[in-house]
Amino acid sequence: MIVVTGAAGFIGSCLIKRLNEDGYRHVVAVDDFSKREKLINLEGKTIREKVDRRDFFDWLDRNSREVEFIFHIGARTDTTEFDRAIFDELNVNYSKEVWKRCIAGQIPLVYASSAATYGLGELGYRDDETLIPQLHPLNPYGDSKNEFDIWALEQEEKPFFWAGLKFFNVYGPNEYHKGRMASVIFHAFNQIRASGRMKLFRSHRPDFRDGEQMRDFIYVKDLVDVCMYLMHERKHSGIYNLGSGTARTFLDLVKATFAALEKEPLIDFIDTPADIRDKYQYYTEADMSKLRSIGYDKPFTTLEAGVNDYVRNYLNSGKTW
Question: Where does NADP(+) bind (predicted)?
Answer without folding.
Answer: 10-11, 31-32, 38, 53, 73-77, 145, 170, 178
